[in-house]
Write a sequence for this structure.
């Protein structure tokens, strides 16, 4: 099977400090792949560099094409990569609908209406609040808006950085249901999570990241059943 | 002082205030999108005023050559940035925007000037000459260090201001210029004579502010500019190039500056360095608006204009001082009222 997206020996540094070292991973079409790891493991750094927000060394391919350093964030959005960053980066003083409209900035204008109603169908809450300012939304709604805005670009690979961060358990469950639905709709997903249990439950494959390196990888179910993983990431007693 | 004088001063103040409002709004726009405190805004006023006056006198303005030079320089900057990945498409695109556009403007100028086509054509020609200078300037001076601190950008802006003022002296000389009024009409409103020129200023200001509002509220590109101002990383993540937003903001600012210059040059004699003081008054308004609020900036600009008109009547020696002192209570109030502001947070 050819990978939709792959990183080979991907290394990212902040000055002299390497935050991501020699990471290799791939995502196939239609897959949910998760990277789990503790706080500070380098997960966000990995996604931000893959999106082009940070400079990186190593090889990166998307849909069989090697991405160059000169492909900046904006070009990567145009190719079909999309990142929902840990900080969300919503346009707080603009309406929910304007945030969504801007999500489609690089997308085909003729598909706009269809995509917008699709996003509203997935997130009815956003439809209710479409005129409200994004900065006034609750945490869960902000996460929905961040995901909705990303979907407006019709991404082929959606990278999600800790979508469950700071959300109540019930809302986390909603968000993960939506992620599973997206896969069913044909979106490939690279999901980064500290919430390993929820992530392993919906992912096909998983990588474990520690101190900037991938230490384990395999089928999500296998890793979830592994006692050492359970001890470190799923909490004792699981 | 009787009512007529008061009304006259008010009219005078509101006319200048309208122009300061335009400049203040442009300053807020440029700062929000690029974080540049746009000191050279005043030079665009000067260039617009003097270009228009020279065109009205039936001559070719030197700014036309400046446009060609700046375009060529910006083109070279673009080639250098993309030297490793030059494509034919990129070359054509850049050559169209930075070489062909000034050439077309120069051609039009040479055809239209001898025809004495009248103030309306000269107005459009002035905008065509000055407007594109904004994005070229952004490309040359600001885009290369777009992520630098506000202070670094401010220092660059001061440098650009000095360079442009010097260039203004070379292009137009030290003599002041004045253009014939666009409208000689005058009306009386009760006891008050109202000049067609000031009606024109009000209409143009209102029209421009309305157009800007429509642009920012209704168009995708306008929303993209706002998004860049609200959250630069968020804008990049949806695929908005912040450099494109910067160029559009500078194009709008240069155009607004040029129009302001055209509006005042029939009323006041403009020298190569006059624009700076005019720009500073727009700046006072923009500071009162916290470099963030358009309505507050526009309202403050009207107040600045009226205070200036009253001050020039009652204490003409102290006119400028009084106007610039308006800023002090605002700064004090702001430093008391404000907590800290996060630049990049949502
Ligand atoms: N802007 C930065 N400058 C320097 N070091 C950073 C920066 N951002 C993150 N780091 C460091 O890089 C490492 C990985 O951080 P991060 O990618 O945020 O981890 P995670 O997302 O897995 O919690 C941490 O040690 C963190 O302190
Ligand atoms: Mg993180």
């Amino acid at each position: 099977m050819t990978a939709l997206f792959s990183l080979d020996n991907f290394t990212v540094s902040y000055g002299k400090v390497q935050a991501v070292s020699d990471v290799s991973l791939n995502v196939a079409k239609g897959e949910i792949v998760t990277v789990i790891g503790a706080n500070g493991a380098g997960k966000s750094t990995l996604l931000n560099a893959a999106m082009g927000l940070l400079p990186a060394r190593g090889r990166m391919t998307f849909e069989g094409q090697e991405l160059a350093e000169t492909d900046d964030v904006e070009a990567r959005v145009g190719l079909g990569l999309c990142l929902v960053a840990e900080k969300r980066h919503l346009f707080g003083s603009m309406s929910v609908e304007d945030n969504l409209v801007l999500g489609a900035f690089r997308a085909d204008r003729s598909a706009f209406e269809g995509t917008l109603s699709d996003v509203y169908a997935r997130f009815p809450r956003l439809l209710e609040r479409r005129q409200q300012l994004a900065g006034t939304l609750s945490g869960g709604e902000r996460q929905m808006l961040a995901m909705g805005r990303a979907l407006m670009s019709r991404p082929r690979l959606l990278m999600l950085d800790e979508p469950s961060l700071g959300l109540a358990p019930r809302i986390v469950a909603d968000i993960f249901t939506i992620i599973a639905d997206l896969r069913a709709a044909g979106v490939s997903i690279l999901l980064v999570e500290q919430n390993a249990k929820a992530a392993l439950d919906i992912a096909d494959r998983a990588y474990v990241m520690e101190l900037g390196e991938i230490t384990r990888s395999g089928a999500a179910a296998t890793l979830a059943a592994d006692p050492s993983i359970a001890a470190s990431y799923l909490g004792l007693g699981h | 002082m009787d009512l007529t004088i008061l009304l006259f001063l008010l009219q005078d103040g509101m006319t200048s205030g309208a122009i300061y409002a335009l400049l203040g709004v442009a300053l807020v726009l440029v700062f929000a999108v690029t974080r540049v405190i746009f000191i050279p805004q005043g030079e665009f006023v000067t260039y617009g005023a003097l270009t228009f006056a020279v065109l009205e006198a039936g001559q070719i303005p030197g700014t036309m050559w400046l446009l060609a030079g700046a375009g060529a320089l910006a083109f070279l900057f673009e080639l250098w940035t993309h030297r490793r990945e030059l494509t034919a498409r990129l070359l054509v695109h850049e050559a169209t925007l930075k070489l062909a556009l000034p050439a077309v403007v120069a051609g039009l100028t040479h055809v239209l000037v001898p025809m004495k086509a009248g103030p309306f054509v000269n107005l459009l020609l002035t905008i065509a000459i000055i407007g594109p200078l904004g994005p070229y300037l952004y490309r040359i001076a600001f885009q290369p260090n777009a992520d630098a601190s506000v202070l670094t950008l401010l220092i660059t802006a001061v440098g650009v201001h000095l360079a442009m003022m010097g260039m203004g002296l070379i292009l137009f000389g030290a003599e002041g210029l004045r253009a014939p009024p666009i409208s000689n009409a005058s009306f009386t409103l009760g006891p008050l004579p109202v000049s067609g020129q000031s009606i024109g200023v009000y209409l143009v200001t209102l029209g421009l502010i309305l157009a800007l509002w429509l642009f920012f509220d209704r168009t995708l590109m306008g929303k993209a500019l706002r998004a860049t101002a609200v959250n630069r990383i968020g804008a990049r993540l949806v695929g908005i190039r912040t450099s494109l937003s910067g160029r559009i903001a500078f194009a709008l600012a240069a155009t607004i500056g040029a129009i302001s210059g055209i509006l005042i040059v029939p009323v006041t004699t403009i020298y190569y360095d006059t624009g700076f003081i005019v720009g500073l008054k727009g700046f006072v308004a923009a500071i009162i608006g916290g470099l963030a609020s358009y309505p507050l900036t526009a309202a403050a600009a009207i107040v600045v204009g009226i205070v200036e008109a009253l001050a020039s009547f009652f204490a003409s020696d102290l006119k400028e001082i009084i106007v610039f002192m308006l800023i002090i209570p605002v700064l004090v109030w702001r430093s008391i009222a404000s907590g800290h502001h996060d630049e990049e947070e949502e």
The CA atoms of residues 145 and 152 of chain B lie 9 Å apart. Chain B has one domain: 3-338. Chain B touches chain A through 20 residues (CB under 8 Å). The two ends of chain B are 52 Å apart (CA to CA).
